[in-house]
């Protein structure tokens, strides 16, 4: 079981940390207890989901499943980019791994997805819930996912514990939210920029070259001389080459 005391000790800015053995979803747990800066963690989730309602694979005790409640701050332009930068920085600080990010919310390692981020806005309470699902030490995935899904540690003994990584992720999150360096970290770790991408817009498939990111995280794509600015809330990349 993950030790909440160690996470709180490194992150005194958190108001509380809840750790349970199993839950349907830490996102749901957070929605039912909207305490600002409270972190919800589970060893296992039974109803995992990501952007656009997509499900992903969870493994008991082998992954990191957590959600943070926050009051919305005008100082942060994009919480998805901030969280991704925190995850990237934490992994690089604690390991020799070199993760990269696929626009907008997926962390990759060795060409396989190891982490997804989901940010939900609750306008009625001026809050957001940041969900992070990270494959920490999953040895085996369902056949349908083996070519796409990976783990931070695969076929090797982890050099850190989940507690240590969780504590470092939220420590970096807190530091980066104040420094505003997170956008540059995110952009420098992107493996989409410069690549040919395929996406759907209003039912039409469009192919173009990803050229840049806006400060608020939109992807700029050049398609046959026409520049398009893609919103992460409306567009999902289908392919990238």
UniProtKB/TrEMBL annotation:
Residues 1-181 form the BPL/LPL catalytic domain. It is an enzyme of class 6 (ligase). Its EC number is 6.3.4.15. The keyword Nucleotide-binding applies. InterPro entries: aa-tRNA-synth_II/BPL/LPL, Biotin_CoA_COase_ligase, BPL_C, BPL_LPL_catalytic, Transcriptional_repressor_C. The keyword Nucleotide-binding applies. NCBIfam families: birA_ligase. This is biotin--[biotin carboxyl-carrier protein] ligase.
